[in-house]
User: Fold this.
Amino acid sequence: MGVGIQVENLNAWYGTTQSLWDINLHIPANHATALIGPSGCGKSTFVRCLNRMHETNPIARAEGVVRMGEIDIYKDASPVEIRRRIGMVFQRPNPFPTMSIYDNVASGLKLNGFRKKRVLDEVVERSLRNAALWDEVKDDLKKKSGASLSGGQQQRLCIARALAVDPEVLLMDEPASALDPVSTAKIEDLIFKLKSQYTIVIVTHNMQQAARVAENTGFFLTGKLVEFAPTTKIFTNPSDKRTEDYITGRFG
Amino acid sequence: MNEPKLIPMPQTVVTAPKMDAVPSGDAQPAQTRLAAPSVIRQFLNQKSSGRVPDGLFGGLMLICALSIFVIVLLIVFVLVRDSRLSLHAFGFKFFTGTVWDPVSGDFGALPFIYGTVVSSLLAVAMSVPLALLVAIFVLEICPQFLRGPISFLTELLAAIPSVVYGLWGVFVLVPIIRDQVGPVLEKYLGWTGFFAEPNFGVSIFTASVILAIMIFPVISSISRDVMKVVPPSQREAALALGATRWEMIRISVLRNSRIGIVGSVILGLGRALGETMAVTMVIGNHPDMMKNLFAPGYTLASVIANEFTEATGDLYLSALIEIGLALFLVTIVVNAIARLLVWAVTRGNAARAH
Ligand SMILES: Nc1ncnc2c1ncn2[C@@H]1O[C@H](COP(=O)(O)OP(=O)(O)O)[C@@H](O)[C@H]1O
Ligand SMILES: [Mg+2]
Assistant:
């Protein structure tokens, strides 16, 4: 079951350039939340602050409070503990090319020392089913490598890999932007299905996609959160002029 | 909303033909002249098809590639031709014989093969962990300002002539191994039988240490270069799963570059097998096959270097050349085994990276 995320006064920098300015928002548990905005506006930086991937970049820095459920992720836990609880799917699929499909899905568990074979088998199957990939790969789970799949399959494999550790939050940074329409539709269905069990944050520059999968949508512009509201409101009756301009295609 | 505009490519200046100069009836309308090919199009259109240079270049490369076969074959041919006396006299027993007695004309290569293989494998075993740790340290952990100096020193180590290593071995390493390292190893690992008295300092073990230092730069810098090209997205994949830094290094950096790392180890092994000068100066030069690594030994390369100038008699000379042939074969066999091992390990689990 997912937990909600509360962000207060979040600022982020790369070197001396500030990329996020005073972000405040609440991401409700067990819902999908979409983040939209023109490219370079800080969406990726924002989601990477949520699981402390931002700080893996040596020049990057973040300030502010991010609470996941009860815990302050920057104060009460190590990055490793946080990332174990928050799964992430990147823009470009990045399965481990030297591992089999099975090992890719099991990698998060094996990494943490989980060795019970029977449970692993079960988890791998369930994750692949949840990621809508099981039927396509079940015959060569251990024969084929993660890199031998198509782009769309690789992305679903990465989703399965993230799901296998049973995260409470799932961050997806433009998960479908490198994919064809069929794979994109599959991934959208997936998000729709998963959001009752996980808190999902999805970055997208495809506004139809946000409208289809997310209850709430946030609009970023030049490092600031311009508007955060229920998706239907953002798309039918935005309260900020800049949001309206963006979704009606007047800039961006 | 403004319409997108296509900015036209720069045009070659076409002077409009004077109307009176044009034969009547065929006058070109003005628009056609404007559609004259752009500078870029004209430039590209006049380029040749590329078939001739590609063919030439291809041929040149083929010749270079074939020359490798020719060189190898020539080496084998000369080795076999010049060792035919000893080949006839001893046959296959040359490779299994344990006696090396120039006085009575009895030659067997096994002690030298033993010395070469054991000292090289031991050197690789000592060098690989150290070299990989240094490579990982430089890439993943080391503060920026130390990176340059460490890499530079590593490469410098590769540039030191082997006779200098030999001198250093004789004056520094031999006493240390005799007086400091030896007693400790005997005390704690003596029960294995690999470390026992007498220990004079000149030994297979000392040669291995020298070799380990000599092959360290090759293994370390090549494996560093392969690890460097592991894409950042692979590191992020591991980190996002909750991997610690070490786990990330293990499952995304080392795993993705393991074929290249093995390649670097094989290169290092090749250098160790053939190294002559430094080994000759510290190995003791005694054709024995002892389990005790503190006992002196002899390598194929060392015996050639030591005895070639004083080889009296055709059979003696021919036996030394056959030692060269043996070294050639050992190198090939060891490399083949190493590659087989890699193949066996990576075959099972969908190995190849892209
Ligand atoms: N690794 C980085 N180093 C320096 N600046 C970066 C880096 N990544 C992103 N930025 C800067 O941060 C800003 C936000 O980028 P990003 O979060 O990637 O935007 P988005 O995901 O919305 O396209 C941009 O101005 C970008 O130039
Ligand atoms: Mg982005």
